Amino acid sequence: MKAFVINKYGKDEQLYLTDIPEPSLGEDEVLVEVHAAGLNQLDSKIKSGAFKLILSYKLPLVLGHDVAGVVVKVGSQVSRFKVGDEVYARPADYHIGTFAEYLAVNEKDLARKPKKLTMDEAGSLPLVALTAWQALVEFGKLKQGEKVFIQAGSGGVGIIAIQLAKYLGATVATTAGSGSFELLKQLGADVLIDYKTQDFESVLKDYDLVINSQDTRTLEKSLNIVKAGGKVISISGPPTPELAKSIESSRIMRFVLSLISFGIRRKAKKRGVVYEFLFMRASGRQLEEITKLVESGVIKTVLDRVFTFEQTNEALAYLEKGRAKGKVVVNIK
């Protein structure tokens, strides 16, 4: 089958289109013919080597963390899916590889594609929707009447998180360029802050929850707008020792992550704020809940651009510019 691979880590490395063997199928896995694959900053970070201490992938590696497609084969122990089902998923770490014609996905990480979405739309959704769900519902435990600040509202995670937070009954603040304001208002944002001309720290006060996706300076400022007992959940770092535990990493790695996150954890504790790092995980069960919200019209997808499979390098380069409003997708079939 055709697939785009990286042969070594590097920020400026290209993906190479090549022929590789079709995936072998485990007894609890489903073989998916890939129709669309969403692109995420995680793909770029793995390519650059930023996560090689945490995720020790073997090279050459097929990138890609979002898939929508059709089941073409099932393992002997698979009970929930059959050949011909339209599905989508964020495959688990160490089982990624959606920039390819076929992918084996564990049954527990898979869900049926929302019927109202095209393959491109469905392929844009799993990683960002699961990130939003885990940040707001699982980690953040966001409740009706609370206030949440979601940074970078026009990004992939931000667009879904705004809609989910509004559905949960929260007041939603976000940052974006003014050109995105109308879209974000339609999605449910209540407080819009132009990151080019305004400082969110001078606008927001006594928030219950912050979803941080920006740099360390922005994270530190976020601590100042959260009330005592509130939470700051970061999807961009620094990672904490709890991450090393969750991925069953070594004691040395736990120690390293403890050092890396010590400063921000200390500042959060001093302010009476909880700091947590979220490295989202695959979950077919949570995707099924997200499917219900899509089908009922609560969550809408926003696509910025769709590239052809042959344009995967151009798609990743476009994503890395950081200007996309919504998701970037590669159409494979």
Give descriptors for this structure.
333 residues; alpha/beta; 11 helices; 32% helix
Give structural notes:
- The structure is a single chain.
- The protein has eleven helices and 16 strands.
- The chain is an alpha/beta fold and 333 residues long.
- Strands 3, 5, 6, 7, 8, 15 and 16 form a seven-stranded mixed β-sheet that branches. A six-stranded parallel β-sheet has the order 11-10-9-12-13-14, with helices on both faces. The protein has a three-stranded antiparallel β-sheet with strand order 2-1-4, with no helix packed on it.
- Helix 3 packs across helix 4.
- It is globular.
Whole-angstrom Rg: 19 Å
Q: Structural class given helices, strands, pairing?
A: alpha/beta
Write down the secondary-structure element order: EEEHEEEEEHHEHEHEHEHEHHEHEHE
Shape: globular
Strand content bin: 25-35%
Q: Care to count the β-strands?
A: 16
* Alpha carbon gap, first and last residue: 13 Å
Mean pLDDT: 96
Describe the sheet with the most strands: 7 strands, mixed
Low-confidence stretches: none
| Count of alpha/pi helices | 11
Question: What share of residues is helical?
Answer: 25-40%
In summary, what is this structure?
With 333 residues, the chain is of the alpha/beta class. The protein contains eleven helices and 16 strands.
Write the layout of secondary structure elements.
Elements: E1 2-6, E2 16-19, E3 29-39, H1 41-48, E4 61-62, E5 67-74, E6 86-89, E7 102-106, E8 110-112, H2 119-123, H3 126-139, E9 147-150, H4 156-167, E10 171-176, H5 181-187, E11 191-194, H6 200-203, E12 207-212, H7 216-223, E13 226-234, H8 241-246, H9 251-270, E14 274-277, H10 284-295, E15 303-308, H11 312-320, E16 327-331
Helix pairs in contact: 3-4
